[in-house]
Amino acid sequence: MHLAVYVLRRLAYMLVALFGVSLVAFVVTRLLPGNPAYMIVGVMADESTVIAVTERLGLNLPIHEQYFRYIQQLASGDLGDSWRTRNPVTTDIGARWPATIELGSAALVLALAWSIPLGIVSALRRRSFSDRLANALSGFGVSIPEFFLGMILLLVFFATLEWAPPALGRTLGDVPPHTTGFYTVDAILAGDWEAFKAAAVQMILPAVTLAVTVGAPMVRVTRGFMRETMASHHIRSARALGVPERSIVLRHALPNVLLPVSTMGAIMYGYLLGGTVLVEFVFARPGIGKYAIDSISESDFAPVLAAVLLSALSYLLVYLIMDILHFVIDPRTRT
Amino acid sequence: MTGRPASPVTEDAPLLDIESLTVGFHTGSEDASMPLQGVNLRVPRASRMSLVGESGSGKSLTASAVIGMLPEGAEILRGSIRLDGEELIGVPKRRMRDLRGRQIAIMFQNPRASLNPVLTVGGQIAEVIRTHSDAGRRESQLRAIDLLDQMGVPDARRRAGDYVHQYSGGMAQRAALAMALSCQPDLLIADEPTTGLDATLQQQVLELVVEQVSDRGASLLLITHDIAIARQTCERTAVMYAGRVMESGPTASVTSSPANPYTTALLRAFATVDEGRMYAIPGTVPTLVGPLGECPFASRCPEVGEECRDGVPELRTIADREVACVKA
Question: Which value does ipTM take for this structure?
Answer without folding.
Answer: 0.87
